[in-house]
Automatic annotation (TrEMBL):
Any one GO MF annotation of this record: acyltransferase activity
The protein's name in its UniProt record: GNAT family N-acetyltransferase
Organism: Nocardioides abyssi
Record keywords, A-Z: Acyltransferase, Transferase
EC number: 2.3.1.-
Domain N-acetyltransferase residue range list: 140-281
Length: 281
């Protein structure tokens, strides 16, 4: 149903073409939403939630992914307020609000009075892109992972997630689902790692991809191996393979305070193109 006050309704398969035109306005920043639309056809049963659209004069002008994450798409202040109004009407069902800073800030301001306080808010996360060859030598040890690597890979993924998010992905009985996600990325050829002997010394994954871009997540080096350039040379290898085989532009976003990671990405050739924010519950 379309709200006459906000012009917001849930999108469906018939809206796919218009939605992809919307994400194409900034295809790298919108890669997550683009990927979700292409892989689910905007069908709620496959989305595991909904994709809301806001219309003006019958034209789709903004959207918002509503699943485990609330993700605004091309949302200006009025769009974000409209999405926040709809979100308040259903209560909080998401674990994060994430996306471009201004839209996330406006969304949070709109729902803050009715939702519980976030566990953490990271307001200015540099969004980085690389669209050319890496500027450092790729680590030749980096390769796609296989099921034979799971004994090393899965604990590394848990350690990375716990360090990054502040809570284990296995918390509350989530181990089976998280292991399935790690396996899913592996099966897609989206999981990469470097090994020294049998020990994993670097890892990263492609979180999502479209014909325009791929977004990297889960970059991690064991604490006792940091400061040796493993992240820079590992990311150079990942970016090189992903640009050749998955999508022409590689992106990621990083915490503003993580200066070591930011230096590593800058060495590779990643450049800041936007600022993201993440509000975590």
């Amino acid at each position: 149903m379309l709200s006459t006050r906000s012009g917001v309704r849930a999108l469906g398969a018939s809206d796919l073409s218009a939605f992809l035109e919307l994400t194409a306005l900034d295809p790298v920043v919108n890669v997550f939403a683009d990927y979700r639309a292409r892989t689910t056809n905007l069908e709620p049963r496959w989305l595991g939630g909904e994709m809301w659209g806001r219309f003006e004069g019958g034209q789709l002008v903004a959207a918002c992914h509503v699943g485990a994450n609330l993700v605004p798409v091309q949302a200006g202040p009025d769009d974000a307020r409209a999405f926040a109004e709809r979100a308040l009407g259903r209560g909080r069902t998401v674990s994060t609000i994430v996306g471009p800073h201004a839209a996330v800030e406006a969304l949070w301001e709109g729902v803050a009075g009715g939702w519980d306080q976030p566990r953490e808010a990271r307001w200015r996360q540099p969004h980085l892109e690389i669209a050319g060859p890496p500027q450092v030598e790729p680590d030749p040890r980096v390769r796609r992972t296989t099921r034979q690597d799971m004994a090393e890979l899965y604990p590394a993924c848990v350690a990375m997630y716990t360090e990054e998010v502040g809570i284990s992905p296995e918390h509350g009985g989530g181990a089976e689902l998280y292991r399935a996600r790690v396996t899913q990325l592996m099966n897609r050829g989206w999981s990469f790692a470097a090994f020294e002997g049998d020990r994993l010394v670097f890892k990263a994954e492609v979180a999502c991809a479209s014909p325009h871009a791929a977004q990297i997540q889960g970059v991690w080096v064991p604490p006792d191996q940091r400061g040796q350039g493993l992240a820079a040379h590992g990311m150079a290898a990942v970016a090189q393979v992903v640009r050749a085989e998955v999508a022409p532009v590689v992106s990621l976003y990083v915490n503003e305070w993580n200066e070591a990671a930011r230096r590593a990405y800058a060495r590779v050739g990643f450049e800041e193109t936007a600022r993201f924010s993440t509000v975590m519950f």
